[in-house]
Amino acid sequence: MEEDKLSQIFIKKQHELEEQPSSKVWERIERRLDLHALPQKKENRPFQLSFLYIAASVLVLVSIGYFAFWKSKEESVIAKNTSKIEDKITDFSNDEQFYYQIDSAQKELIAEVNPSLGNNLDKPLSAEREVDEPLSSVIFLASENEETFKESGNRNLSAPSASLQMDRKPEYNQPSTMNYASPPSLQFVEDMNSEKESIASMEEKSAATAPVFKKKVLSPNAQEQKLCEPLQKFHWILGQWIDKEEEGGQSTEQWIITDYNTLLCVGMKVKSKAKIFEDKTFLYFDAALNQVFLKITLDDSRKQVLYQLTNQDSDRLYFVQESDATYPQKIIFQRDLKGYTVITLNEKGFISTNVQSYLEHRNRVSQVRAIRKFVPYKK
Amino acid sequence: MNWKINPKNFRRKIFRIFNKKVPFGTFLLFLHNSFTRNCILYIKLNVLRESEYIKGCLAGDRLVQKKLYDAYAAVFFAIAKRYVKSVESAEDVLIEAFCKIFQKIDTYSFEGSFEGWMRRIVVNESLMYLRKNYRFHEHMEVEMIPIQMEDANVEEDISAREILALMDELPIGYRTVFNLFVVEGLKHKEIAEMLAISINTSKSQLILAKKRLRELYEKRNAIQNTNLG
Hints:
The complex is a heterodimer. Chain A is of the alpha+beta class. In chain A, strand 4 and strand 5 form a beta hairpin. Chain B is 72% helix and 0% strand.
């Protein structure tokens, strides 16, 4: 069909209509394309990245797992515990050094009285036992000036009572004849030392990357720390104890001397080689009140509860508190032929949930009492 | 881009290769050669063949897409303007069309020319735009085929732009059929399918469109003559 002339002209000249649209058009197209392109990229990327992430995270987890768990398997949980206690003991020796230091003014005073002593004063007592003898004379001299002399080993005491304390302090009594449960302390410490040495040597062999911190080896003499007289009847308790009959795992307790008038007990509960509970108990003699106290942290609030030693006979030690009704009222230590039993009594039957969870860890047997029966720990 | 060469680096490279000073003349010759080669490369890169466009667009290469746009935007803009009245709506059609081209390029089956395929997309997009506000089958059901009029005397000096201005006064249905039949060269059957109308309607619309267009032309001439007179 032939077109009319107007159409023919239009077909012929249609190229005249061609002109570039405004630059905004391309910008809008680009924006549209970017919008459509984004989801496609998202589909591709996460898979590739996630594959890398998974590979990297697996690598990291395996390496962490190796260092954290494989190595700790070799160390027993109890060995960790003793290392902590060791730290405490070394701290104590440092304290001893600190408290035996004498002011320069006092040095001058001593040098005036006895010039031959002046040179030996710089040496701390714990470093050499030889210093013991001359120092006792120093103490004798210094006791004449009671106000300026610093009492050694006991921070809590005020100046007048310090002089009273000093008469007792240097004496060290052997464990009382009541101790028919053989004290496992020395044997245990030696065992732990050999074990620790073997672990240390193994670590040195396996990897030289991490620095190995050598801890001070506990000497057998360290157990023969001096103890004030009221606490000497607790000497039998020193050492490592274990309760194997508990339902939710095994409880261990280790009693050590941290201070002249303080005993520390680190208690732990271990379940299938994992530590699930730990607490610290202090048994100390308050010289100002002339009383023996048991200081326990019973819950997460970190509030320390004081139990006073009220009653004692040949078998039992009664620690009582009546200040706070939300905590157990009595803690009884009962000795027997093999070891001892700790009974936590809650006579009023009104305790907070935190304390309840504590008592669960302490082998709670009924609403009113938790009982743990300890025997000496043998490897 | 490999063909971009930094002359400073090149001189150093040559110096390294021969381990002695290169005469400046040799260097100039080298520069001249590289310049001519670069010019040829530049031209090649800017005017791509169809297959290169398709390859680049399939890969989602933004540079190739831009080049395709630069090459065809004017042509497709002209097409869109024929169907849609305003420039703004023609630009909208263009955007839709190009987005479709870039996104649906994987459906191009290499039957017929690439440009023809793209043209069809632009025309389709234009019709889609018109369909938004206008239903062809409702407005155009005229079964009566009018008698064809005789050809009028049309002066050759009338521009395409002037004809387009006349076409803007036509109803949408008339103009669309006129565009599809006369400019795009489609058959009445195809047009009927595209617009969902009968073949007879398409025929009658075309005749009416031509008739109206001639009337408009004569009217315009008359106005021009009175203005001149």
